Amino acid sequence: MRTADRRIVLGLHRSGHARDLLEAAADLGINHIDTAANYLHHRSHEVLKTTAGDLLPNFSVSTKVGFFPEGHSLDPARLRTAVEQAVKDLGREPDLVFLHNPEHSTSDTGRLGPACAALAEIARAGLCRSWGVSTWDPRPLMDFDVPRPDVLMVRAGLLVGVDVLEAAEALATRWCPSQVWGMSPFGGSTAQEVWERFDPGVFLRRAASVTKVQAAFRSAYGLPRVDAVAVGTDNIDHLRELTGALAYEVDENVVHEYRQLLKARQLV
Question: How confident is the model at residue 262 (pLDDT cuts 50, 70, 90)?
Fold first, then answer.
């Protein structure tokens, strides 16, 4: 087994939660998996326990709460109940619990602060080790102050628009999380036509042998700068390819030039 590397998080969004995938991830040194209460038709936690409960002690597990069968909610009491249910369904306390896409309920302006305070209290009570906020679109959150989260998760990668990219960085500056994680590094799929039209290897140094998938994935760590990237796949070969991407280094000069181009296009 390879030395564990926390820079890759195996995301279970749209995943079948197959046992062989988790076994392969552990063998590749990936020791963190990320799920959510609403994944797999709101059955992710119990399916994980059933199919791979004995493997879960090998992983740090993060999950998310906020989406319920009847819709999204930032109600503190409901969030606490959801975390308590996650503990029962997983058979263990999650290492990290995210508030899931709170921008869905920010029209209820008084809710975000209490919701984050509730997760902070849940962590202090021992129902999880730490807490954070996972946001697909950080722009509606910019004017809110919350208790300092342990982790902020945002979209990352070459397909993130400059407005979302800058909002994510501004939010990280405002909230000062201990870590920032990225997600959705391929914008949904490596099969999108955009990955055929250009070579993202230009964003890496000394990358003559890198694949396009590896280059796009490795570049995501710099757009915005993140400590880890959560990526979802049920393909073990794809997962193995991604771990190989960590051997390459991002060319910060190229990333800077790219960001300048994005900004100039936005102004036009």
Answer: confident
